[in-house]
């Protein structure tokens, strides 16, 4: 949408430029004609030079037969007259365009008068311009010198001013300027995208502080933060189960608080939080210090606790261990620093993070559950979500909101349809959908053997010839033809990059998603959406205040 508006402005600028150039050509042409073909007697008298064409031609013809010096006078005179015409044309053109060049206009007028004054000097009139009188060669040389001096000055001044009046030169300069600006713009875009990527992927100081404070709390009071025994509710299929996979403590807390605060029966909701080994202790301390409200249940586990997730079974782990992938993602750092932001995004090793790919192992992680709702850590829940469990998925595995409109967000955007396997197996016009809020029928998943399908395609893409990055592309492949489209009000996306989402659309959404680089916990967040996230931050938590989140 922004592109559309930018394009319209570009077209208006383009046509304005065309109209401007046409007007300049027309005005210059008319100004020149008006000067060249003016026959106003008063103008002839003011110029004080013989300008009658027939008289000039006849005199030139006679001079050729009689006096060679007369021809020389006429040629010099004609040269002076031509430059007067040229100077007046530029002056007329400057007047018509109403440019802010009054000084230059005055200069041209004075120059024209100066050249005219040479010819009307009494000694030149009496010694050079009497048709039948003799011509003094010394006077002629003096006249020629004065005229040439003024002509030289006129040429220099016109050359200096030509840049303002020469249309072709101006067009070329504009083209050069546009090219230079485009180059600068491309460079600025690359630098901006790179800076945005670095900002988005780096750990903010406040978040790092929070993790350290939580770890310090655990070290100071180890007995206080011992793990509890698993509760039977964690495996009760009659309850509403959520899966959240993240290493961001405060983001997970916001997701959980927003679900609970908007739930009609919060005590029936169970949260399964999985993080990495580095953050699992901090995550557990947070939810020990700030228990989930409303009687909801929550468990925190590390990826490593799911022992079946090893390199012999999981293609992503095996690929991370391979020399080829290690070189692609982690090797040759000098080369990585020269790549643009787009390439760096492809090479970001988080795209092969096990946390991101846990979503493809939900039936094995939670074998006793029938349905589970997957939530990303950059969402905020605004309504009770239990209605999602009541939706009939018609035997499909995945319930998700589609993101396509027109030709946008089709499968062709995410998959390489020049590859024969992709071309034969999928429709490039198929509508894509979004991760972030997905209701999964785990029974249908097991029946369809979706994890096996994911493994097959992930193995085929070890060289990244089928798709480039992330988990959406393998998700589109894995759940191709087994995804049911949900109403768009369940999941509104774009709050992490699109500043133009309507207030009505946001207010009607059950889940809003800050997908994009401008996450709500970062300084680069879009201000108009930030309050929708910050209102669920637990500001009473002492470590949030101590770490200066700037909320």
From TrEMBL:
<dbReference type="GO" id="GO:0071555">
    <property type="term" value="P:cell wall organization"/>
</dbReference>
<feature type="transmembrane region" description="Helical">
    <location>
        <begin position="15"/>
        <end position="37"/>
    </location>
</feature>
<dbReference type="GO" id="GO:0047262">
    <property type="term" value="F:polygalacturonate 4-alpha-galacturonosyltransferase activity"/>
</dbReference>
<keyword id="KW-0961">Cell wall biogenesis/degradation</keyword>
<protein>
    <recommendedName>
        <fullName>Hexosyltransferase</fullName>
        <ecNumber>2.4.1.-</ecNumber>
    </recommendedName>
</protein>
<keyword id="KW-0812">Transmembrane</keyword>
<keyword id="KW-0472">Membrane</keyword>
<dbReference type="GO" id="GO:0000139">
    <property type="term" value="C:Golgi membrane"/>
</dbReference>
<comment type="similarity">
    <text>Belongs to the glycosyltransferase 8 family.</text>
</comment>
<dbReference type="InterPro" id="IPR029993">
    <property type="entry name" value="GAUT"/>
</dbReference>
<keyword id="KW-0333">Golgi apparatus</keyword>
<dbReference type="InterPro" id="IPR002495">
    <property type="entry name" value="Glyco_trans_8"/>
</dbReference>
<dbReference type="GO" id="GO:0045489">
    <property type="term" value="P:pectin biosynthetic process"/>
</dbReference>
<dbReference type="Pfam" id="PF01501">
    <property type="entry name" value="Glyco_transf_8"/>
</dbReference>
<keyword id="KW-0808">Transferase</keyword>
<keyword id="KW-0328">Glycosyltransferase</keyword>
<comment type="pathway">
    <text>Glycan metabolism; pectin biosynthesis.</text>
</comment>
<dbReference type="InterPro" id="IPR029044">
    <property type="entry name" value="Nucleotide-diphossugar_trans"/>
</dbReference>
<keyword id="KW-1133">Transmembrane helix</keyword>
